[in-house]
Amino acid sequence: MQDFGDVVSLRLGSRPVVLVTRPAEVVRILEHNPGNYRPSASYREIEKLIGQGLVTTDGELWKRHRAALQPAFRKSSTAELVPLCAERVAAFLRSRPAWSQPDAAVDLHHEMRCLMMSLTSAALFGLDSADDAEEFTQAFDAAHAYIMRRIEALVRLDGPTAARRRFLRAKAALHRCVESRIRRQAATCAGAYLLAQLMKGGPEQDASFSQEELRDELLTIFLASYDTTATALTWLWLVLSLHGEVRRRVAEEVATRLPAGVACADDLASLHYTRMVVLETLRLFPPVWAFSRTAAADDVLGGYRIPAGTKVAISPYCTHRHPAVWEDPDAFRPERFGDGQPGWPPGGYLPFGLGPRHCLGRNLALQLMVLVLVMVVRAYSVEVLGPSNPAFEAGIFLKPRHGLPARIAPLPGS
Ligand code: HEM
Asked: Which residue of 79, 125, 242, 350 is most buried, as measured by CB atoms within 10 A?
């Protein structure tokens, strides 16, 4: 983008891809002409892991499932999850030795992944604990590494290699974990968690989902939610540690507005500055840093002809740091999201995507990020150790390559 502009043809291995970073073209692809831009071949690789869930399907199947899942993710539905999630965060912080010892050294990225595993299990399945968290995370990491190697590979072999056998074992483990969650909760399908809303009397009676579809959707939602949000929270601790004044203002807002802690979604919604900090973190460090589509028919983007079959890459990371869109784009300034600010052009801010396929879990993700931030800021000091610009690992998600080493200590009197 910096060297060649807003529409750039690249070669990744043997495959051409056109990187599109200007908001006007991003909007055309995702919002105005989405029927022409379908999930690309990379999604076929992801499908090998998560099957036919929302992220990977297209056409009528996608439409039917999106319509069935949408109500469970509306603001009014996710608001009901707040008390359950607040209880889970408190239980997590109590249960981890690192959070009760003074000045314990931890990898905050690992901690956030474990926390989100537990929170997602609660929000989706109503489960008290994620006792298979270790198995789930390891299986996910192994499967993710295999998928990334295939997305990046010049030639994809489908033979029975050792790597493929390991991948199939990891995938079977993930299926086992999700199916056991569904089984454990199917009997008591009531309560404020998302599976209860989706099952409405059990999958057999629900015309919109077969057992297999339900499993694939839940695995999709689980994977789409837990690692993205954990990664976003990890970046949040980094920026708060680098910007002491911002951290102080967040702590002050939390102490002033919520002296008795978090009881409901309105409590979280009252924290305007804290939310701005979250939104600005997602601008500088969007966990979904890039995604792609394939053009079904010829199109023109930014004056360039895009022939049918072209793979087009969209990068929230690049667009969020585009100098024509954001003033001083690399600076961390939560005020950009305040009332009365100039804002950004349509398509200039898209950590959750845009158009009909925008993130289903946007409300839930923002709610969980603010909730975790509030509960940790109230009770702990968090000091990130190591470099202020940790190396990136840009796989499906944008993560710190070596985790995020930090020292945490309970605040006096908490
Ligand atoms: C900070 C956290 C999150 C970020 C940054 C994020 C980002 C995104 C982005 C960029 C997309 C669009 C991808 C594309 O257009 O190809 C997306 C789609 C999706 N996200 Fe999220 N997400 C987050 C959390 C969640 C959560 C908590 C859930 C569910 C509970 C979720 C479920 C989904 C699903 C199901 C889709 C596919 C939607 C469709 O194609 O219809 N995400 N997400």
From this structure: 350
Nearest to 124 by CA among 136, 116, 135, 114: 116
125 CA distance to ligand 1 centroid (A)? 18
Residue 357 CA to ligand 1 centre (angstroms)? 9
Q: Which residues line ligand 1 (CB under 6 A)?
A: 54-55, 66, 220-221, 224-225, 228-229, 232, 286-288, 291, 351-353, 357, 359-361, 364-365
pLDDT band at 185 (very low <50, low <70, confident <90, very high): low
Give nearest CA residue, ligand 1 atom 43.
359
Closest residue by Cα to atom 28, ligand 1, is: 361
pLDDT of residue 187: 59
pLDDT in tens, 356-412: 999 999 999 999 999 999 999 999 999 999 888 999 998 888 999 999 999 999 998
Distance CA 347, CA 25 (A): 8
Q: Establish if 13 belongs to a structural domain.
A: no
Å from CA of 356 to ligand 1 middle: 12
Residue 305, domain member (yes or no) = no
Checking if the pLDDT of 326 tops 80, the result is yes
> 213: domain CATH number?
1.10.630.10
User: By residue range, what is the domain housing residue 327?
Assistant: 66-291+321-410
DSSP per residue, 210-246: -HHHHHHHHHHHHHHHHHHHHHHHHHHHHHHHH-HHH
Whether residue 144 lies inside any domain: the answer is: yes
Over residues 45-69, the mean pLDDT reads 87
| CA of 73, closest atom in ligand 1 | 30
Three-point CA angle 283, 224, 400, nearest 5°: 50
pLDDT of amino acid 365? 96
| Paired tokens of 286 | 């969007």
The total number of structural domains that make up the chain = 1
Q: Rounded to the nearest 10 degrees, what angle do helices 211-242 and 362-379 cross at?
A: 40
Ligand 1, atom 36, lies closest to the CA of 359
Å from CA of 352 to ligand 1 middle: 6
Whether residue 402 is contained in a domain is answered as: yes
